[in-house]
Each structure stands twice: as C-alpha cells, then as structure tokens.
User: Which sequence fits this backbone?
C-alpha cells in the first residue's frame, strides 16, 4: 500500500509503511519546507530577541545614581547633625580647624534651622525619589512625570544653595577650607546634572522658567537670612579694644635675669601687643618691665 500526501510545499511518502489492521486510522501531519533565505531571516529574528539592549547592560540607571548620591549626602548631613546636637567638633582631614570655624559660624543656620537638618531632608528626599523612579513604583497620586519634575526641582534648589555657600566661603572665610562644604557642593551639582540629563531639549525649554524661579527663591531666602550677619572681615577690622597696662607680678630666676641682661646688651628688641597673652607670659618670665626696657 503506497500513498503520497502533499502538505504545504513538502511531500511525505508512506510507501514503506507496513500493512495496517482494519479500521486503523492514520493521521499525517503536513510538513512545510522553508527556503534558505527564510531560515536565515528566522535566525536573525531570534538573535534580535535574545540580544540584550544597551540600556540593560549599562548597569545603574541615572535614577539609581541619584539614589546613591542622595544616600551619601544623607549620611554626611546626619553626621554633621549629630555633631550639632552634641556640640562636638567635626573632624576635618584637609582644612584642619577651618571646618569648625565654618560649621559653627552664623552662616551654618538658616532662619534658626541648622543647615545639616535641612541637608538631611533634601538628600533624603532625593534618595527616595531616585529609588522610586529607578523601580518605577510610585505612591498613589504621583506618576513618573511628577517624580521627575520633583527630582529636578529639588536638585536645582540644592545646586543653587551650594553655589551660594561657595560664594560665602570664598568671600567671608578667606583662606579657610571646609571639606564637608566642598563634598556637599560636589554631590549637589552631580545630582543636578544627572537629573537634568534625563530631560530632552524640548522638556528643558518648558521647565526652564520654573527652574530659574526656584534658584532665585533659594538665593533670595539665603540672602534674607544672612542679611543681619556682620561680615567676619569687617568685624575683625573694626574691633576696638581699650588700652590697659600689663602688670608684672612674678619674680624672675637668676637665669632669666641673666638672659634678659644679655638680650639688652646685644640690642634685642621685643615686639608685642598689650592684649597678647604670650607677650605677657614672656614679660612675667623675664621680668622685663621692671629690669630692662627693650
């Protein structure tokens, strides 16, 4: 029993099949032969489906970076807030005592609120927004568009505040270096540029006016808060201390008196100030005002 079945473009032959019992039904599936071109196209389609997109292999998303940077800033401001609450001095590996001079100055408070507390809130908000945008999971009433706009507005205000603080640091703290201030400025500027990069040129044009208003409000608020603070340079220059005589109340040792006599003989001169505590100590040791005037 030989039969030939045609299905699609392929032919199936069953001439070699053995004799089948009576009433046995034979099902033959159609076979479709593909041309070599169709096979290559199918392979290329499967390759496209299995090849990952560049965005999936690029690692952290930009919003993930925002969350990480916001977390670093939150840790820094938390440490500074702890120091503020405990009245402790900050460890400054680069600026030395300059960090304490800046962090404990009147410029470290805005409308009665310490700057580290404000920084904790700002960096915490950015970190939470970055996580929500990276996972694309938002609470009720907030979608991705609103989240992106809030992140951009927050980073804009932080960058504007950091730029103003750098201006204060360079003008009112001449020669001082604050590692925490510089680190916070770097984090704020990084957050601003990363969040801005996620907007197209058309979107930036639409929100440009709003961002300028936010930056202007931040600068105006800081200027108002600091308007009553007297600049450090002028306050030091205008310091007027009344003159007073220093009194020598100790007796010098024979060695100190001989040293004072020797200094007087060689024409040595002492330069000091009446308010200088170290100058008074030298006078007490050498008994200068009673024995030798030089």
Assistant:
């Amino acid at each position: 029993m030989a039969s030939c079945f045609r299905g699609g473009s392929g032919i199936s032959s069953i001439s070699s099949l053995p004799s089948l019992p009576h009433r046995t039904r034979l099902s033959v599936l159609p076979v479709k032969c593909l041309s070599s071109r169709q096979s290559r196209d199918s392979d290329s389609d499967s390759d496209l489906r299995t090849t990952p997109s560049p965005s999936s292999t690029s690692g952290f998303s930009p919003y993930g970076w925002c969350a990480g940077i916001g977390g670093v800033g939150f840790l820094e401001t938390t440490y500074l807030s702890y120091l503020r609450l405990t009245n402790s001095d900050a460890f400054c590996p680069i600026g030395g005592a300059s960090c304490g001079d800046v962090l404990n100055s009147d410029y470290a408070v805005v409308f009665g609120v310490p700057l580290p507390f404000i920084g904790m809130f700002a960096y915490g908000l950015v970190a939470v927004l970055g996580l929500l945008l990276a996972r694309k999971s938002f609470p009720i009433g907030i979608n991705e568009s609103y989240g992106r706009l809030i992140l951009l507005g927050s980073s804009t205000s932080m960058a504007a505040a950091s730029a103003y603080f750098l201006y204060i640091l360079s003008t009112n703290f001449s020669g001082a270096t604050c590692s925490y201030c510089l680190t916070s400025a770097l984090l704020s500027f990084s957050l601003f540029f990363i969040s801005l990069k996620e907007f197209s040129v058309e979107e930036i044009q639409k929100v440009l006016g709003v961002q300028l208003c936010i930056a202007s409000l931040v600068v105006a608020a800081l200027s108002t808060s600091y308007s009553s603070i007297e600049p450090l340079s002028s306050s030091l220059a205008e310091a007027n201390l009344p003159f007073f005589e220093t009194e020598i109340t100790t007796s010098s040792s024979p060695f100190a008196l001989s040293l004072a006599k020797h200094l007087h003989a060689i024409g040595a001169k002492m330069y000091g100030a009446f308010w200088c505590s170290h100058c008074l100590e030298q006078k007490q040791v050498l008994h200068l005002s009673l024995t030798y005037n030089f």
About this structure: The CA atoms of residues 1 and 22 lie 13 Å apart. Residues 144-172 form the longest helix (29 residues). Confidence is low (pLDDT under 50) at residues 1-17, 42-58, 233-237.
